[in-house]
Amino acid sequence: MDEDGLPLMGSGIDLTKVPAIQQKRTVAFLNQFVVHTVQFLNRFSTVCEEKLADLSLRIQQIETTLNILDAKLSSIPGLDDVTFVSSVSSVTNGSQSETTSELSQGVPVMAIRNKMISEGLDPDLLERPDAPVPDGESERTVEESSDSESSFSD
Predict the structure, then answer these.
(1) Which of the 8 DSSP states describes residue 89?
(2) Which residue has the higher pLDDT, 75 or 34?
(3) If 0-12 CB within 10 Å is exposed, 13-18 middle and 19+ buried, where does residue 74 land?
(4) φ, ψ for residue 89 (rounded to 5)?
(5) What's the count of helices (H) and strands (E) in the chain, helices before strands?
(6) Which 8-state DSSP code applies to residue 120?
């Protein structure tokens, strides 16, 4: 026996003399467990599908914005041979290694910042590329301002 007075080997109860557990009770507990588990999984699945749909919509909006930006940039003559300075950091086997930034000719950063300010965008987004995407309200004001500018240029 151990310090609590329980036998070390087995429970010391003769299981042949113990009455069986009622099957109806066991089935009821099992059914309740299955029902609650299925309800939880259904709710979880619904929430996951909603979040996935929202994320898919945001990705489509970003792709559309990127296509518009690409079209605007491709309409500017002389940008075919322009390169940009890139500083990329990558994670390899748990260690972070930074690639050296290549200096090349391109659009000055201040020119980009000034253009973003004139378009009503936050120029600090250039410093934070991993920042969340701004909501659609700021995009609408940019589209409205570009629409009004294009009406004057016609």
Answers:
(1) E
(2) 34
(3) exposed
(4) -110, 140
(5) 3, 2
(6) T
